[in-house]
Amino acid sequence: MNNKTVxxxxxxxxxxxxxxCMESGLIIKDSCVLESKNPFFGYYDDAPKVQKPRYLYxxxxxxxxxxxxxxxxxxxxKSSSINIDAVLAEISTPNHPDMPAIRLRDLPQxxxxxxxxxxFRDAGLVFKKHSKETNLEHALITLEKFFLLEIIEEGxxxxxxxxxxxYFIIPEYIDWDAFKDLTRKAKYEPSLLSFDAARxxxxxxxxxxxxxxxxxxxxxxxxxxxxxxxxxxxxxx
Length: 237
What we know:
alpha+beta
């Protein structure tokens, strides 16, 4: 279609994943890199075993501001020979304080990981030291990022960069525990296929808009609307 409306938004996305510390010699010595053990587990736990997206988290020694990390990422995208898809992340669990990180998505080859780490280190970042205990079950991950969304109709979006990601508006903010419970109830509907859900917030025209992100391979508009209607029914809308 030539009349697609695509718009960029700034916002956050919150999801839950289990992370494990990489013990591989592929990373810089005495640094901590976490790998998602089962990304989009709400979907892939029920779906056929296929190639999953790969997500890595370069753990930082101390927090860094969004603008500061964006300067570094933009510089590396211009100078690095490796295709870097990176965003700022914060990871938390009940037993750990909030931990800052850089989320890498779909690094072409894991053999490039130490090169990317060194490029970030040369740009001034200090990595958290390696710890065998940094394996996090059900870690809450919040990403600060720009969303490039295709506006399908009012309140309905598809991700213009990443396939299989759809979004719909919800009327108000829902805290994570309530969102998990809402998603669990949404999955009781047998007519809906498996999916993974996350919570997102974006800014538009000085307003904060709350969204549900649905991940399912080959999701289309009719299926996304079915998920939206199920959530709306549970919310009493």
